[in-house]
Amino acid sequence: MTLDRIDFDLLRLLRKNARLPNKDLAERAGIAPSTALERIRRLREAGVLQGFHAEIAPEAIGIGLQALISVRLAQHSRALLDSFHAHLRGLPEVLAFYHVAGADDFLVHVGVGDSAHLRDFALAAFTERPEVSRIETRLIFEFQRNAELPRHCT
Amino acid sequence: MTLDRIDFDLLRLLRKNARLPNKDLAERAGIAPSTALERIRRLREAGVLQGFHAEIAPEAIGIGLQALISVRLAQHSRALLDSFHAHLRGLPEVLAFYHVAGADDFLVHVGVGDSAHLRDFALAAFTERPEVSRIETRLIFEFQRNAELPRHCT
DNA sequence: GCTGAAAGTGAGAGGAG
DNA sequence: CTCCTCTCACTTTCAGC
């Protein structure tokens, strides 16, 4: 699938505000509302638009503390990897995770209530797991996401 | 501001699908559409709902490679921190960044076209910067975000 | 603070260019 | 592929509960 300038405009607008009405979307992209509707339907079907998510203030949902936990697995077998992967996906404290190349295999972004919660969680969800060889926890002072599209998406 | 069960329901629904029509939102939360509208307006005004963002397939916008770059600053002065912070916010390759406690000061999630782009970018945006003392780059095999709310948000 | 009706507006489908 | 029109459904406001 090949995207043109109008597709990038629609993506850029939806990336900044996913609840923008179709009418406004069309106007700002310089096309008719029905055309915008059709384009967005196609972008979704092609898997370019994967979803729309609300961003929620962490403190409002009881997240007073965020941390990054580096995890090194005991071995690099496929079975162990899959098992740990599935485990990560089931933890509500996990906000996001990265599977990376390097000495540590995973980097896990977690959100917890307080430091006691963090200690208990790190112990139960990582240290006590058979797949895990070693973890390292870093507190997050600030986390920010970027809603811009790359420069070449003109 | 104190949230009740219905607020959490609305947040949970919008977190999973930010484009869900208000009517459906109300129905699934068990309230009238006008009530849902009012509640969401208040959640936005209170800063609980901070925004709505589309999730876009990286490859579709020319991101063939993602990496995590650990950055250590030369000193920990406020001026240097602010300067580097502002710099990060202006880079389109930066998808997100963490300001963390520990030996490294920042962890930057970047998306680039290919390995040549990554090398050039790491050099120009980090290594050559006066604020930066040292960087370390790790390739990302997989990145996943969690759209669930914490367990206590019933 | 929630409900339900009423007015205004946008979404979405079908057909023409 | 894009636009226009038309219908239908949704959003949004407001008075009443």
Automatic annotation (TrEMBL), chains A, B:
GO terms for molecular function: sequence-specific DNA binding. GO terms for biological process: regulation of DNA-templated transcription; response to amino acid. Pfam families: AsnC_trans_reg, HTH_24. Residues 3-64 form the HTH asnC-type domain. One of its GO terms (cellular component) is cytosol. Keywords: DNA-binding, Transcription, Transcription regulation. PANTHER family: LEUCINE-RESPONSIVE REGULATORY PROTEIN (PTHR30154), POSSIBLE TRANSCRIPTIONAL REGULATORY PROTEIN (PROBABLY LRP_ASNC-FAMILY) (PTHR30154:SF54). This is ArsR family transcriptional regulator.
